[in-house]
Amino acid sequence: MSLFLVLLLALLPGCVARPRMCVASSECGARQSCVVGRCQDSAGVPLIQKKEVRRLVLDPVAIGYVERGRGATDGALPPIFTLGRSAGGDSRLYLRFAVPPAVAKDTAILEAYVLLDRSLAVQPDPTPLVLHAARVVSPWDPRSISWQFQPRFEDASSGGSPATRVVPAARRVVRVDVRDIVQRWRSRDGRDQGIVIMADNSTEVGMAFALASAGSAAGSAAGNPDADPASAPRLELYLAPEPAR
After folding, report:
1. What distance in Å separates the CA atoms of residue 62 and residue 98, rounded to the nearest whole number?
2. What pLDDT digit, counting tens, does each position of 147-169 carry?
3. Which residues contact 101 (CB under 8 A, 6 or more apart)?
4. Closest CA to 235 of 144, 140, 115
5. Band of pLDDT at residue 4, cut at 50, 70 and 90
């Protein structure tokens, strides 16, 4: 293959690597630090920590989990779900949230993340897993959703929502960037029907996450990390009055 063809393929939209959230400050510039997955200037107070910024956490109003080869479950959900498991085939998590009044046109959405709590009930594969989110653009019902009957979603093969690289030794709470998706909600576009979370790669066992709040606070206090309470998926927003930057 000629050098010209190699360079041409690298410039095609489908060949551009998806941007990734940072994991450590070493991935950022010399004068930057990694703050909640984003490289920011080390000097001064990070945007999300400023006094005028409000943090809002929302529970989903609908959850759907689909896996290749499985039919609809009439809305029943397992206590944990797995993403990126090669043995079980592809899987996706669908979430729908009620658009809060705080997400108004005069409010800046500094950050928006779907928070996933890793489940300690399943030992993860040592290979890192890469997750990203996409915008769902057609209606769906958690009672009838299945791999065969999924809603449509917009998923740019390059660009779009940054990916999250999750390593087994990472913190229990995993943040998946959905800022660009949530910013669209301010226009009240009827096509916005939620968020879908999926894996970009697969490993032998994938990675397990909690679908329901569970665990024992007493066990955690006793020093047993396996008893730490896990929370269901939720949306974390950092909001500030305009202008925010």
Report:
1. 9
2. 999 999 987 644 457 888 888 87
3. none
4. 115
5. very low
Look at residue 1 in the predicted model and tell me its pLDDT: 43
Nearest to 131 by CA among 207, 64, 59: 207
Question: For 138, what's the count of Cα atoms within 13 Å in the CB-facing half-sphere?
Answer: 7
Distance, CA of 93 to CA of 195 (rounded, Å): 8
What is the rounded CA–CA span in Å between residue 174 and residue 131? 10
Residue type, 45: V
**CA–CA separation, 13 and 207 (whole Å):** 29
- Straight-line distance from the first to the last Cα atom of the chain, in angstroms, rounded to the nearest whole number: 46
How far from 8 is each of 2, 32, 36, 156, 158, CA to CA, in Å? Answer: 10, 33, 35, 19, 15
